[in-house]
Every structure is written in C-alpha cells, then in structure tokens.
Task: inverse folding
C-alpha cells in the first residue's frame, strides 16, 4: 500500500493494516499528521481485505500531543474532533501500539482506538495542564470513564504520566507487549481480536465510573479545597475540574462540547500563552547559536565533587541519581563524614516517602566514594568544585585539581558569583574549565547555569549541556559576570524589599504582595528560611547599620532560631513580629522625609520593575544569549510564576512604556538605582518586545 503523505504510510500484514506515523521529533499531531491519519483510516476502512487497523509510530515515541507550535495559527488540516469521531466510529477494530510517550492529544487518539497495547517503558499521560490547557480531544470525558473521577482529577490536574504497568492496572491498556516487538505483537493482538470477534470497545459508551460520582458534588468541592494552594494563579486546573464535572453531569456529546468551550477559553488565555512560551523557551535555552550541533562531546563516566557541604552533597546526589559513580572529597574528615551522612539521610527520607526502595538507597550510596585525598580524582572525567565562595580558596582548589586530575578531565566550578576566568588561570587547561552553577538544594532545584569562560572549549560546553540533560536539569548558558543570570537579575527584589519596609509596608506585606503575584515565598520568608546570618552579614564587621544587621546581631537568624523577620512557633509557623516592627521603626525614624510607597501596587512595581530592568542589563552586557533564557532561569531557579512567563515576557504583557514611566518616577523619588536602561527605553519607544530579543541582535 502507498505512502500516504510525507509523514504517514500504510502497509498491511495478514489482513491487518498498519498505519505508521513518522513525523520527527515527537510525532505531534500536526496538520500533516492529521491529514495522514484521515487518509490512512479512509483507505484501510475501504479495503475489503483489511480486518483491523494498528496505529503505530516510528522514531522515539508514540504521538506526544497536539503540535503546540501550530496553536494560534490558521488551521488548514482536517478538523481534529471530526477525525477523532471518524476513528472511534470505525467499523473495524483499531489498536493503538504505544512506545515512548503517549501524551496529551496522543493519548487522546489512543483512547478513541478500541484497544491499546504498549511496551513496558511506555508512558501515558495528559500533561496539557503544564501548558495552561486541558485535554481538548476528549481526555477529560474519556479518562474518568476508565479510571474514575478522583483518579482523573488527580492525573489531569497534575499532568503526571503513568508507566505501562500502572496504565494496565488502571485499565488504560489492554496488554503490555515485549519492548522490541511492538509491531509484530500489536498485529498479533489485532488478529486475535478479529479471530475472537471481540467487540469494538468505545470508551465513550462506559458509564459506571462516572455514574459513581453523580450526585456527589462534594468530590469536586473537596478537590478544589485540597489543592487551592497548588493551583493558585493558574487558570487551567479550574477549567479541568469543570470539564470533568461535565463528564459526570452531562451526556457524552454535551460533555465534549463543554470540554471544547473550556479548552478554547484556555487556549486564548494569557496564562496558557505564558506557559507555552515557557515550554519552548526552556528547550531553546539548551541551544547555543555558535555551537554547531555536531560538536563532539567528551565521555563522562565518573565524576568527582570537591566539598562535602550542603552544595557539594546535593551536586553529588544529582550525578548518583543518574547512575554515575562519584568520588566526594573534603579536606576535613568530620565534614566528609557529615556530608555522607546527610546524603544517606536524604535518600532514606525519600525512601520513607515511598519514592525509593531500601535497595535503591543502598545502590545509590554504593556509587559514592568518600575521600580526603585529591589523588582519588585521578580517573574522574569531570570534577565539580563546591567549596567556600572565595576566589583564593577556589584558585587553590583548581591548582590542586589541575595536578591531580587527568589532563583531559573537565574541571567545573560551582561558583555563584566569582570570576570563572580568574579561577581558570590557576590551571594549565583553561579550555577545560567551565562553570556548573547549581541552585540549592542542588538535588532538588532544576536550574543549572552553565558558565562559559573566555577559553572554555566548544567540546566542553557541548559536554556540559549533555551532562545537564543527563542529570535532568534545565540548562541556561551564561557568560562570565558577577551573579551570572538568575541571581543577578533577581538581586533587586531583595534590596528594594529592604528599602520598602522603612517606608511603611511590613515584611509580611511585601511577602504577601509577592505571593499574591504567584511567587511561592516572599523575600523575607526566603531570607528566614535560608538564614539571615548567611545572607549579607559579615559578623566580624557588623555595625548595626541597617535592619538586617540589627536582626543578625540580635540572633534573629531565621527559622532555625525561631526568629528572623518573622517569629516562629515550634512547628515553624510564622507570625508577624512586634520586635521586628520596633527595629524597623527605629531605623525608619532616622530617614529623611520623602515620598513613601505603601499600596500593594506600589510595592509590586517597586520590587519587580527593577528586576525587569536588571534583566535588560544582563542582555546589554550579553551575559545571557537571549531574553527567554533569563525568563527560564527565573521561573525555574526562583519560582517566578510560570503563568506570567518570567520577568521579560511579563514585562511585555504589562507594557514597556508603562514600566519605563514608572521606573523614571521611582528614580526621581528614590534614587538613580531605578533608572531604566537604554535598551528598555529604546524598546519602549519603538514599541518592540523584550522577550523575543537575542543578544546576537543589535541590543543598544
Ligand atoms: N508540539 C510541538 N513540538 C513539540 C511537542 C509538541 N507537542 N512536544 C515536543 N516538541 C518538540 C520540542 O519543542 C523539541 O523541539 P526542538 O528539538 O526543536 O527543541 C522536540 O520536540 C523534542 O522535545 P524535547 O526536547 O522535550 O524531547 P524529550 O525527549 O526530552 O521529551 C516529550 C519528549 C516528553 C514528548 C516532551 O517534548 C514533552 O513533554 N512534550 C510536550 C507534551 C505535551 O505537552 N503534549 C500535550 C500537548 S497539548 C495537546 O495535546 C492538546 C490536546 O489535548 C488537544
């Protein structure tokens, strides 16, 4: 049988048609794929020799969803809902043969097939929520009919995937077949269906699971209440809940209609636009324009980590979690012992939560070798230094690493602030030196800034990008500059927040405004969590010059002391502190009269517009490759709300002219630190957008 179009073909074997989609990278449901499906099903149904149809994909995965890059563009292909109805109503059995990831619209296509088989490594899920959407191809109507309403609420609002075994147990799959024999075994399965004259199972006809939730609105009320905090600011979860409610209360076709309305509303929402931007921005961040795709990479099998403190331990765990053996070095035996114990404790805690088995814990610990001796790093392919943030200490470590590690090994620094090029001068291999800036706790936080030094070789950069992916990080490439991208761009938030509390708003007011905006925590709560003593306090030269120093001198070091900007009870629950108010008023009393910022709107613009402005400085100095990298770094590294798209995407939605006007006013009243950059002014004047900017474009 013929190739149907550029991305689909149809063959047959023993009375079974095999419709194959081959549309790299992920077989998304593009216009061409939908056209191929339409042609393929029509041909197979019209062919009298064909008794059943297997739908399968080439390449790395089954259909991974609708083609997100086509959203918002004129739709010229076959109508998706009509195509879905056509397949579901086919007069011959249709079997979906799944490998890789059947996600979103991909799983929805599988769910209109009459049967589903998958290989053990397959994953199935409806992750649309992560794009600010809901499954718009019947997912919210069909999934509850198989797994029940509660499970569907959980799966669709979390976007979590099931593996093949879980999907089989949940009734999503009819069979799990052998990993490398999907095609033959799916055909054999289809032949069995035909031989046994099994019925055409249509999920739409099932009712018992949704009937079980009928007349029980409390299921939805309770679900909303239990997840209110997690869903705050996002639009999609509420529409998903409403759509699943429709599956319970309406007949199938009316439920589908309701789903489509709720999907369309999301598709047009600013939240989804921001989340879709974030999806592509994260992937683009891993691309470096002047690094050819074919750049050779170095083999990294074994890793060394120098420094067994919180950061070093977390970094070691990242590699161990990816199955890589790690030698953990510290100069002090007790620090090394403590570091190893902390890692073990972290794994044991994960095991207690059921996410690892005791055997997994043993296996991971077995990948770790503690040592006090740099010579243990002789065979490491990559060494990551995570010692105290001091240039001389780091240079000393790199000098010793250069002597101990094999000549081709990559030497990486986890510095968050220092000059990587200066560190590299301590070695005879500056081309093999790179920055790998993890965020704390390194085993949890997904952001990894890869710092490209003046002499870092293309191979080392390409290898670093590959390693980042291997250990599951979102990577952003930074030039050498103080604070790199994320910390630098975010620095004004903390500084302005400390000014604001002298003008009337309390720390808890500032925190509330920022959490209402969508941050998981405000700057003062974060400071209390990390510790006031470790943020901006030099205990030997402390002069009680500001509120922060005063609180440090009072021993109010944050949560660990039960007192910081807030008071804490024994469960670490914060309450506003009258003592802190007294200290603030003491410092505020000495300030000259002048304009005060007191409203929530003033707080928000005073804190966040300078962050936008700082982002434009990072672009002007070409520390980031593109504006979207800054957005990625802040969303992933600092919890900047994804539904706003990060500071620069958000700034475009607010309006650059407005931001410039407000920054000018802030500069007039509160000092030149607020002065908008030339880049920001220029874009505001020309009506340009910030989030699309690349530093290969002319920027000033
Ligand atoms: N549409 C368009 N492009 C997509 C895509 C999609 N649904 N999914 C992935 N891509 C692209 C990526 O942008 C990337 O392109 P690039 O190479 O040019 O950067 C390429 O495919 C590979 O993607 P990843 O780098 O993410 O590859 P991984 O192997 O790490 O992951 C994946 C593969 C798990 C499929 C991951 O890409 C993913 O999670 N994709 C999104 C899945 C999804 O959200 N599906 C739902 C879409 S919305 C929908 O279906 C609506 C429907 O209900 C109507």
Result:
């Amino acid at each position: 049988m013929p190739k149907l179009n550029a991305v689909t073909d149809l063959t047959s074997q023993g009375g079974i048609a095999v419709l194959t989609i081959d549309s790299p990278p992920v077989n998304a449901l593009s216009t061409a794929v939908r056209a191929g499906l339409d042609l393929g099903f029509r041909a197979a149904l019209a062919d009298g020799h064909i008794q059943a149809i297997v739908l399968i994909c080439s390449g790395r995965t089954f259909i991974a969803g609708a083609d997100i890059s086509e959203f918002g563009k004129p739709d010229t292909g076959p109508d998706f809902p009509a195509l879905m109805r056509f397949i579901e109503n086919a007069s011959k059995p249709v079997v979906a043969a799944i490998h890789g990831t059947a996600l979103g619209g991909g799983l929805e296509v599988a769910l209109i097939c009459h049967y589903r088989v998958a290989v053990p490594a397959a994953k199935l899920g409806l992750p649309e929520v992560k794009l600010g959407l809901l499954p718009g191809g019947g997912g919210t109507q069909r999934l509850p009919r198989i797994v029940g309403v509660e499970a569907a609420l959980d799966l669709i609002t979390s976007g979590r995937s099931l593996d093949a075994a879980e999907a089989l147990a949940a009734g999503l799959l009819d069979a799990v077949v052998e990993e490398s024999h999907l095609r033959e075994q799916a055909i054999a399965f289809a032949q069995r269906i035909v031989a046994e004259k099994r019925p055409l199972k249509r999920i739409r006809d099932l009712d018992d699971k949704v009937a079980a939730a009928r007349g029980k609105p409390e299921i939805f009320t309770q679900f909303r209440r239990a997840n209110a905090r997690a869903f705050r600011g996002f639009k999609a979860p509420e529409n998903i809940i409403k759509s699943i409610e429709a599956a319970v209360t309406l007949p199938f076709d009316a439920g589908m209609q309701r789903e489509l309305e709720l999907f369309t509303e999301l598709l047009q929402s600013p939240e989804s636009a921001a989340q879709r931007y974030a999806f592509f921005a994260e992937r683009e961040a891993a691309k470096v324009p002047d690094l050819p795709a074919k750049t050779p990479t170095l083999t990294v099998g074994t890793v060394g980590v120098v420094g067994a403190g919180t950061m070093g331990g977390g970094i070691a765990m990242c590699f161990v979690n990816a199955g890589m053996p790690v030698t953990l070095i510290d100069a002090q035996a007790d620090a090394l012992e403590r570091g190893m114990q902390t890692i073990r404790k972290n794994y044991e805690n994960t095991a207690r939560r059921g996410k690892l088995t005791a055997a997994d814990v043993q296996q991971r610990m077995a990948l770790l070798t503690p040592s006090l001796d740099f010579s243990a790093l002789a065979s490491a392919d990559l060494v990551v230094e995570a010692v105290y943030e001091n240039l001389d200490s780091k240079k000393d470590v790199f000098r010793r690493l250069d002597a101990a590690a094999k000549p081709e090994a990559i030497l990486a620094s986890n510095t968050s602030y220092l000059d990587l090029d200066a560190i590299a001068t301590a070695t005879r291999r500056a081309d093999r030196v790179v920055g790998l800036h993890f965020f704390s706790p390194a085993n949890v936080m997904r952001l990894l800034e890869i710092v490209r030094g003046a002499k870092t070789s293309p191979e080392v950069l390409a290898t670093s990008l590959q390693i980042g992916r291997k250990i599951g990080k979102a990577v952003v490439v930074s030039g050498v500059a103080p604070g790199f991208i994320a910390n630098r761009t975010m620095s004004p938030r903390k500084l302005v927040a400390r000014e604001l509390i002298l003008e009337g708003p309390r720390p808890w007011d500032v925190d509330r405004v920022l959490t209402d905006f969508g941050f998981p925590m405000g700057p003062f709560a974060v400071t209390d969590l990390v510790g006031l003593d470790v943020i901006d306090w030099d205990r030997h030269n402390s002069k009680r010059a500001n509120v922060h120093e005063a609180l440090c001198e009072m021993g109010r070091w944050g949560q660990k002391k039960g007192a910081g900007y807030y008071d804490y009870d024994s469960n670490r629950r914060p309450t506003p502190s009258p003592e802190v108010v007294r200290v603030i008023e003491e410092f505020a009393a000495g300030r000259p009269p002048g304009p005060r910022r007191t409203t929530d709107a003033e707080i928000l613009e005073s804190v966040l517009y300078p962050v936008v402005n700082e982002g434009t400085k990072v672009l002007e100095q070409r520390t980031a490759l593109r504006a979207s990298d800054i957005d990625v770094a802040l969303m992933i590294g600092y919890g900047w709300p994804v539904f706003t798209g990060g500071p620069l995407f958000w700034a475009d939605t607010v309006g650059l002219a407005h931001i410039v006007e407000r920054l000018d006013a802030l500069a007039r009243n509160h000092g030149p630190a607020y002065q908008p950059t030339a880049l920001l002014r220029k874009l505001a004047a020309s009506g340009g957008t910030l989030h699309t900017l690349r530093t290969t474009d002319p920027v000033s």
Remarks:
- The longest strand covers residues 8-13.
